[in-house]
């Protein structure tokens, strides 16, 4: 099976709500979207936030994706629009305080992934040391999920972020943490 067929199959599964397929899409296109935003913003934090929001929005709108377009182009277009909105919002809210976020309804958590299992198997002292190697916002989401045992909805409420941002951020945090653990072994 070639990469195009594999990508089409993965997109199709993601449209059906398959978390693993969506995770694969994040893995496949994270660097493309992040790199695009890094060139635009010249700021790692903004690039990462916009990339997380891009995949969050793509997750919400995957059913609208038209396969006559290149998937990467669709993601980049979402990313570009998020960046434009962010710039407009910053200009508009320059003097405003942070707006309140609506309450978030509960959501189903996905079954543990390979990264989840690897994280659970680690010695606590080693795991805590490895978590400290992550960026603070990734540390926070990992701690809330695994040590405070909060659901996605509870984490989203605590961080004042949309639930899909939390899902993508946790997905990314788990992947980065799993890479740190594998490097240590």
TrEMBL record:
<keyword id="KW-0805">Transcription regulation</keyword>
<dbReference type="InterPro" id="IPR014284">
    <property type="entry name" value="RNA_pol_sigma-70_dom"/>
</dbReference>
<protein>
    <submittedName>
        <fullName>RNA polymerase subunit sigma-70</fullName>
    </submittedName>
</protein>
<dbReference type="GO" id="GO:0003677">
    <property type="term" value="F:DNA binding"/>
</dbReference>
<feature type="domain" description="RNA polymerase sigma-70 region 2">
    <location>
        <begin position="28"/>
        <end position="92"/>
    </location>
</feature>
<keyword id="KW-0731">Sigma factor</keyword>
<dbReference type="GO" id="GO:0006352">
    <property type="term" value="P:DNA-templated transcription initiation"/>
</dbReference>
<dbReference type="InterPro" id="IPR013249">
    <property type="entry name" value="RNA_pol_sigma70_r4_t2"/>
</dbReference>
<feature type="domain" description="RNA polymerase sigma factor 70 region 4 type 2">
    <location>
        <begin position="131"/>
        <end position="177"/>
    </location>
</feature>
<dbReference type="InterPro" id="IPR036388">
    <property type="entry name" value="WH-like_DNA-bd_sf"/>
</dbReference>
<dbReference type="InterPro" id="IPR007627">
    <property type="entry name" value="RNA_pol_sigma70_r2"/>
</dbReference>
<dbReference type="InterPro" id="IPR039425">
    <property type="entry name" value="RNA_pol_sigma-70-like"/>
</dbReference>
<dbReference type="Pfam" id="PF04542">
    <property type="entry name" value="Sigma70_r2"/>
</dbReference>
<dbReference type="GO" id="GO:0016987">
    <property type="term" value="F:sigma factor activity"/>
</dbReference>
<dbReference type="Pfam" id="PF08281">
    <property type="entry name" value="Sigma70_r4_2"/>
</dbReference>
<comment type="similarity">
    <text>Belongs to the sigma-70 factor family. ECF subfamily.</text>
</comment>
<dbReference type="InterPro" id="IPR013324">
    <property type="entry name" value="RNA_pol_sigma_r3/r4-like"/>
</dbReference>
<dbReference type="InterPro" id="IPR013325">
    <property type="entry name" value="RNA_pol_sigma_r2"/>
</dbReference>
<keyword id="KW-0804">Transcription</keyword>
